[in-house]
Design a protein that fits this description.
The protein has 815 residues and is an alpha+beta fold. A six-stranded mixed sheet has the order 1-8-7-11-9-10. A five-stranded mixed sheet has the order 13-12-16-14-15, with no helix packed on it. The protein has a five-stranded mixed sheet with strand order 18-17-21-19-20. Strand 2 and strand 3 form a beta hairpin. The longest helix has 25 residues, at 790-814. It is extended and about 135 Å long.
Amino acid sequence: MKLTGFFLLLTWQLLIAANGIAQTLNAENLRNIEVSAIADEEIKTFYNKAISSGLTEEQLYTLAVQRGMPEAQIAKLRARISELNLGKTTSTKPPASIASNTERQIMPGMARAAMQQLKRDSSIFGAELFSEASNVFEPNYKIATPTGYTLGPGDELLIQVFGYSEQAYSLKVNAEGAIYIANVGPIQVAGLSVDDAGAKIKSRMAATIYKAIKSGQTKVSVTLGSIRSIQVAVMGQASKPGNYTVSSLTTLFNLLYLCGGPSNEGSFRQIELIRGDKVYRKVDLYSYLLRGDRKDNVLLQDQDIVRIPYYSSRVVMEGEVRRAGKFELLPNENIDQLFTYSGGFSDSAYRSAIKVIRITDTGRILADVPATDFASFTPKSGDAFIVAKALAKYNNRVSIRGAVYRPGDYELKPGMQLSELMAKAGGIKPDAFMGRGIIARLKEDQTAASVSFHVGNVAAGKEQVALVKEDIVTISSIFDLKDAQTVEVQGMVRMPGKFQYRENLTIKDALLLSGGFADGADPASIEISRRMAMVDVSSDEYRQAEVIKIDLKAGLDKGGDNVVLQPFDVISVRAKGGYEQQRAVYVMGQIITPGIYPLESSKETISQILLRAGGFRGSADSSSVSIRRMANYSLNREEREKTVGRLLMINRDSLLADPELRRRYLNEIDFLSVNVENIKDNPGGPEDLLLEDGDYIEIARASNLVRVSGEVFHPGLLPYEKGVSAQYYIKRSGNFTGNSRKSKTFVIYPDGRAKSVKRFLFFKSYPEVTPRSEVFIPSKDKDGKKGLSTGEWIALSSIGATLATLAVSVINALK
């Protein structure tokens, strides 16, 4: 039903264009139309013509929208049609000829839309010509008049008289094949070409009212205006058979496109054009597909019939061909011609023979067709030809690897020797191991074998080794057969590390490679540790290394010891006695002057640093101080700063979700808890800790909140209430979940201390809670997965409250 309405809509568009009625409403662009300015008669004519062509009233409005009519004007048009009572008196039932879709008026724009309704087997060779994406045969009506076009009734001639006289005529060829010019009379033009008709018209006009034509003072131009429509039919195995009303400029290929081409069962090679009850031409579309031959693309005439029969023979070509698919064959065509249609073998095809599967009365049979029989083998309809892929193996390949100048694969020639292959590879390199080479070989039964040879003898021509296909020759380098020789510089140098050993490399050379001495190095106390070649390990006390002491206090550019190094020597440069780099701690949070504070002495304590920092702010929680200490003391200052910067970017949720991240965090930082009140009471006492380089001291903002986390129904923050225990906060958070470990509940205090639930017989004693504390309820161990330990929770719980302050302070301090 949708397809019928679609064709009706397009048919109405074309009927309007052909008949030229109601010129205002029939304009292609209705964006600027004003319906209120159109006469009633024009609306009636427009409406009645649309309904008589099979359109419904709604389809009429759809046509107007497609031409750009605004919604406001559509509403006005509806009102005008209703006022004229047009919708009540006119039937909207389409004529039977249109409803059955057996006769179609085909004009520009219909063909491509109609093609979208078709579904065809895309594997059929030639089907792509009639696919939705193809416009090879789509009619083109914006062309010059083709040579050989003959005039007939319905054609329009445009005659321009200019020069001494000026006149324009627009004349239709009448049913008798003539045009009528006032004061000239009727002129018979049917059956003439446009040029012949123009000459005849010019002659008659010169003999009557335009005498100046003979002298050249007046000239005449005759061109073809609108063209006539003709009736043609498509029969047989077309995708859309039926009667078509088309332009007289339509060609056979245009009509094939309009009707969707042959169906899946139709022939591409035996299409008949019937004219005057006789077969006027037989068309083979393969001529166009393969050679671009358009000799059969003739202009159609009125009452022409195109018949598409069933295909007589179709075969399938699969595998390694350039164009696989289904191909139609004519009688007596062979495999060679089938390969022509399929584009021939692909580059990777096996060409000596192909396989054919044939259907017989008793079943399917498989046969091999050698290349010598391609010209004589006649395919049958339904045959399936399969082209196999060539084997991915080499029949004449040998390879050489290792210490040659051009390793790779080479052609194996009959009787080829190993020495020839080595010469093709550019010869052996100086570092080649001359004593032995190896050939990896496959026997005839594909078992692996190894053949060894003396590289030096083969290169000198003293030894001959015959090669076979797929031999892989390996010539080792002397460097492949021993460890890489290095020397190492460690200690107080600018770029410690390992360096490639070179003959005659001295200690001064190695120190230059390592960037020279670092600040604080002692050039007078350098040692070289050298491997012992022979060690008596049976002795209780044996010498493990030779240690050579070097004094280079004179400098690297002057005299002094300059020992020649040996492979695997280790050079150690120590620091001067008493050399000490500055140490510093970070004080952040609610302190008067936060920042980085260098340590003045090796025994500076927390109380001394807090005094230097100006003391606590009024907003500080002065009851406790948190200290984070780098667990890896071997890191230098720059490495510590990078570690801290990385750790401060980690939030609490990430640590809880990622066990590996949590492990690294806890391994890199130690958490210390300090009671400030005890420090105030006893400066220098046990609570007044000695500080280390890189310590981070954080004084938190005072808060009256308590965090409840873990296995409760509503974890979060609650206001602090004095004198209540952890059990109170647990109940306010929805109480324990079914997965909680009630007996392991504990409270983490701001200074890092923790207290757990105590049990006595059947009684439980919950710990007290202070501001900024956290009540944590662990979960049960599920499916063998280990949860966080109490220590881990104590460490992680302090992150959330202090992380932001830490990050800001560290960033500011490092600027």
